[in-house]
User: What shape does this take?
Amino acid sequence: MPELPEVETVRRGLEGPMVGRRLVRVVQNRPDLRWPLPEDFARRLTGRRVERLERRAKFILAHLDDSHVWMIHLGMSGRMHLDGATRPAGKHDHVVVETEDGTVVVYEDHRRFGIMDLFPEGELASHRLLKDLGPEPLSNRFDGAALSARLAGRKTPIKAALLDQKVVAGLGNIYVSEALHLAGISPRRLAASVAGARAERLAPAIREVLQAAIAAGGSSLRDYVQASGELGYFQHQWRVYDRGGEPCRTCGRPIARIVQSGRSTFFCGACQK
DNA sequence: AACAAGACCTGCATGC
DNA sequence: TGCATGCAGGTCTTGT
Assistant: This one.
């Protein structure tokens, strides 16, 4: 499910039910997700109040009243459900949290590429999963100059470079293809050659695509996106992703599908140079 | 240092 | 109601 727009949608959906609320019950149904959960995870989370929900890249960071951070990553298939009080238990419901007013939040992740951690707030900046992340693309510090500086010297295709969270934080396979089409840049182009005017086109294109996707509640491919259970609908606005063989919405020529570093890329050979 | 490929894990669509 | 194959929104680890 989750690239930046989907994670941001989930974060927003959790804010109302969780911020300011105490967690009165925490159930951990298995010892690990992608990695082992921290020692005493459920016990340490129980009784804490959530003060703030932040997003960094594709991570949700719940700031707790004991100056710790509950970190959540949804991996490829993670979902947060708010209807845990009524939905039947699923075999991949790995963590269940109940708030003081009875909302039952379920973390479900059948592929188990997701991550959870619990650590002191003071370790945020040095956390191994956070410390090397590139700029937030929706922050005002992200622009063409910042982008081209991070692409300089890189000999990999721009598609692969944009998937690198050290270059810019939060893009994934869908939105990289989308942003490159909007910017008119070929996914095969050498990353280092995206500088000057091209970088000045690409940075705003990335922002525009992400903002439009957030406004649509993200993209729902095979499952729900929003914590509320509603579907996102940005998939109906995809310019190229998953549209191999279909006509480019700009020029009408068929969208191409290629594989780059093992992952599908979609683009229009006529519109993207 | 930077890069491509492999690894992790389950479920689903497709083709036989 | 089988079985094999390939693919999927991520990112860490391995080998060059």
User: Anything to note?
Assistant: Chain A has six helices and ten strands. The helical segments of chain A are 4-18, 41-45, 144-151, 158-163, 173-183, 196-215.
